[in-house]
């Protein structure tokens, strides 16, 4: 009987959400954005990839000829260094003094060279990630000056600056991965943890809003004669959990299928386990946080009181999410390992570690078991708060009042 009541409430929640045009529209929109992102990644080589015409290592890609103001004599070694670094000779313009050089820069010159290449004048940077002078220019002039002082001629400077980097061969040691795989894994881990955080916040907030709306509209008073409070909360959690899991699958599946069909090599080893872990730990994290959210939300009588009631839980979620960042930087660090077994942080940390390192299956399983047991205990606690406060109105209900108001 209880199972049937829970399933009836869960079915009601599922139908209610799937009939919501806003919910369906948002899900489709996010899925389209993720799918478009996958298309962009697949087309990246064609849109931006290099080829035989790519600039040599150590040279800036050729483009419009740079205008460079020069005060005094500029050694041939410095000119050769700039030519090697820029990929083409700049347009040198002699000016009388530093004041004239500043004026030239203000009027549009890319930069000015003073003291034989030992000083540069440059305009303000165009943005926070744009250097004031082309990359490597100041370093090239510094090398040229040092070589010139050591007696090297211009040809020797040019050869030195155009030298190709030495080849690096990776020795397989059984640990670590290549740079491309590491970058791809980091991207999967970062996106997965952030997506999981947003999904948990969104659906936990949906539980809280649903509880307070039903309490405020007195709908719950019509349902309680046939469905006990604990079954009502359980059905709500199961229904929204199913909806949330379906939403994650709908959002991620098209993009993953596209990549698998077009270029499976783009997916780094272990990404499948990471994606599965995101879904699994969403279910566990939802059970952990949403149940408590439902119990806390029942303590409020108005929407205005809701945020104050659930704020302590939101603080825990945010703190737990931030523990994923140390795991992103050092997945085998002490804080990452400890956070794996803390139930509140495990839903965010375990998918990150699965994406970045070869996490033993038993560690992930043990972490999931800890989260599941904690979720059951907290949901039982929240169900008692829910039962003791869902019919109380007129103000915020205290924890002790709600606990005592529930049936034993």
UniProtKB/TrEMBL annotation:
Transmembrane residue ranges: 21-43, 194-212, 233-261, 273-299, 306-328, 334-352, 364-386
Start and end residues of each ABC-2 type transporter transmembrane domain: 163-383
Keyword terms of this UniProt record: Membrane, Transmembrane, Transmembrane helix
One cellular-component annotation, GO: membrane
Topology within the bilayer: Multi-pass membrane protein
Subcellular location, record wording: Membrane
Gene Ontology molecular functions: ABC-type transporter activity
InterPro entries cross-referenced by the UniProt entry: ABC2_TM
Domain of life according to the entry: Bacteria
One Pfam family linked to the record: ABC2_membrane_3
Descriptive protein name: ABC transporter permease
